[in-house]
Amino acid sequence: MSSGDNITGDLSQDDSYDLDRKLVVQILDAVEQSDQQALTELLENLHAADIADLLEQVDAGDRARLIRLYDREFDGEILSELDESIREEVIETLNPLVLADAVREMESDDVVDLLEDLEVPQQEAILEALEDADRVAVEQSLSYPENSAGRLMQREVVMAPEHWNVGQAIDYMRNSEDLPDQFYHVVLVDPRLHPIGNVTLGRIMATKREVPLTELVEDTFQVIPADQDEEDVAYAFNQYHLISAPVTDGEGRLVGVITIDDAMIVQDEEHEEDILRLAGVGEESSLADRVIETTKRRFPWLAVNLVTAVLASLVIAQFEEIIAEFVALAVLMPIVASMGGNAGTQSLTVAVRAIATRDLTGSNVWRVIRREVLVGLVNGVIFAIVMGLVGLAWFGSPILGVVIAVAMVVNLVVAGLAGTVIPVLLEKAGIDPALASGAFVTTVTDVVGFFAFLGLAATVLL
Amino acid sequence: MSSGDNITGDLSQDDSYDLDRKLVVQILDAVEQSDQQALTELLENLHAADIADLLEQVDAGDRARLIRLYDREFDGEILSELDESIREEVIETLNPLVLADAVREMESDDVVDLLEDLEVPQQEAILEALEDADRVAVEQSLSYPENSAGRLMQREVVMAPEHWNVGQAIDYMRNSEDLPDQFYHVVLVDPRLHPIGNVTLGRIMATKREVPLTELVEDTFQVIPADQDEEDVAYAFNQYHLISAPVTDGEGRLVGVITIDDAMIVQDEEHEEDILRLAGVGEESSLADRVIETTKRRFPWLAVNLVTAVLASLVIAQFEEIIAEFVALAVLMPIVASMGGNAGTQSLTVAVRAIATRDLTGSNVWRVIRREVLVGLVNGVIFAIVMGLVGLAWFGSPILGVVIAVAMVVNLVVAGLAGTVIPVLLEKAGIDPALASGAFVTTVTDVVGFFAFLGLAATVLL
């Protein structure tokens, strides 16, 4: 693979933040020559997130050699940045002593994130490496449901009684031994530890000592229950522009805090899940997956698609006689189905996205359905005219032109209707509309497309 | 529309953060009865973002009536939260005095965001409402390119000379008159105003007065050039877990700061753009768009699809004779094309997403292409066997079974290849792969699917 090779050059037009391809080549050279010093120097100025990306991009053999050569320099942050798909493999490759050191360096919420996806023996090995206090904290976090606010939060909270003033808060913080590295708010709590407001560090800095903290609380204040789904947490951060939010247990007591950087990661994961589910790809897929895993993840959706395609074929089979007589029908029929499938995908994507952002609600669902049907009608009429003329010109049959035109209008209207109603009904049934809408909608547009076109043809041509 | 109606009930299973439908009904009742006091009370406890959502969800008539009735209570934050699609309409409806007050309350970066999408006369009306200093700030921001870091940043920065210690920084901040409401770092600058490090407020709080600030700077420090694209800004925040980052001009001087909440909004918008572009929907679409706008946005992709569908039909037309003889071919041919289209969509979505996250690079593109082709081969063989047997059972023809099986393998391999290579080449050509890959890939899978199946059939059956 030469570096002048077109497809392997830097991919993006503007390559800010792309891993420099020359650097990657140098790193792999150092690995090949087992030159530990060169490797350490090359990796020294890379952020852990970039080293993790590098490990994901090289092949499994280079990955293992790199990790063994890098050895004691491998730190916990790289582990937290690694994609889930190769974490287990990397952990197995790591020298157990290096792994133990790496894990001890990590923040407790990062350890939780790491443990979640590992097999039990690996989990236990890592838990054993932790100090007692950290292990208890990690085990407590793991007691919250997967993908919940409880797993996402950090337990270190800076709080103050509601009756304190600015001076007391400053003195408390300046005398405190173990403030978290990153925090943005002081959480005010009542005597039963219920959070009642957030005061930003900036406001505290800017205000005179004698002012009560209660006068400085932010207008927007959202308390997150520990069992709330992380998707809802990310929504709340995005909707209300939160920077950090207190997390409470079943009794409403403060047990931790979630910060916006964690919410941003969840938002990114949720988007990835939506986009991959809409395309019928298992949501945990990654470029580092191997052929067998990837095949397994892609298989179910293709299997569903095969069933729907066979259903459509069964419709076509009802019209074998007329197709044998007018072969033009076989030539034209995929056009109607294809246009319906595309229009349906447009409608369903807008609907799925609007459901995810809470923009499609009981208040406007009828208006949206009406709009989608009207859009289908308008576009249907335009494309009906075009295809009617194409049909006429191509096969010289005005009747054939009319048949394809009518079928086009019918299918695009049905596409708008199905593309909106199906995601809404799936959501109400508790099924992720991103996952299942595509199969249902294209089944509808295929079946309706072939049936309308061939059925109409059979009626008028025979 | 009764409230017992199934489809209009609360949409999500778990309705945290959904606008309460009962509240919406009460609000619309108050609007209908022109009961200003009731309306003000109902909206009092809603966050501006929720009021903006409400305005997006009701129809245009209710929206105008609500805004006129709410009148002076309408504040600037609602304006910044509104979806672009209805901003102009809302601004035209607002009493000009209320609009002027609302705009004067807004932060300067929010005013910039508001102005960007307005027509010139509306822009000028709003600029005139601003005080002189604010107007200059807004006009300076507007001088940066659209979607650049310069437009995204806020100009208020808390900075300190690099030689200061903690005590000096605290004294400076506590004596400063106009600290920003929200800030998380003190930016250290050299004498030429080049940013050289970030110190978090938390670290300053936790550290003794005599410690130099340079000892407290964060390990991760990214400086953003003012002309960087906002998509890259969002990537940097997500990749390096930044909370805020200094923005510099062409000479490397500090001119502003971008905070993670703005980056999170950009990330959300970029995802929305990707997901809608992949589905062939104009990226600025919104549920509040009207039929004509929506039709116009959907039309181009459907037009492209019509061309590709006609191309596929031209392929079919080459085989009219054999179809007339063996109508089973017309029944089965859509299956091969449909499976290829779906497999291609899977591959291209993974590729588009991986390009966006910088995971697909020159270093691993060949390995990914090989993997996708192998996945296509494995799934192709499985579905070939299934469809071969279906073809045999359905039409009693072993040859037909073999033909569909071979065509299936060919098309799924081509789908994996095209689904990866096409997005990569589009990206290299400077075309957004999310926008254009779908049309190219499905054209390839349709044409190859029909040609392989019908061509093979013509060879062995005639």
UniProtKB/TrEMBL annotation, chains A, B:
The chain crosses the membrane at residues 299-319, 331-352, 373-396, 402-426, 438-461. It is a multi-pass membrane protein. One of its GO terms (cellular component) is plasma membrane. It holds the Pfam family CBS. Its main location: membrane. Residues 216-273 form the CBS domain. The keyword Cytoplasm does not apply. SMART domains: CBS, MgtE_N. It is found in: Cell membrane; Membrane. InterPro entries: CBS_dom (IPR000644), CBS_dom_sf (IPR046342), Mg_transptr_MgtE_intracell_dom (IPR006668), MgtE_N_sf (IPR038076), MgtE_transporter (IPR006669), SLC41_membr_dom (IPR006667), SLC41_membr_dom_sf (IPR036739). GO terms for molecular function: magnesium ion transmembrane transporter activity; metal ion binding. Keywords: CBS domain, Cell membrane, Magnesium, Membrane, Metal-binding, Transmembrane, Transmembrane helix, Transport. Belongs to the SLC41A transporter family. Acts as a magnesium transporter. PANTHER family: MAGNESIUM TRANSPORTER MGTE. Homodimer. This is Magnesium transporter MgtE. It comes from Leisingera methylohalidivorans DSM 14336.
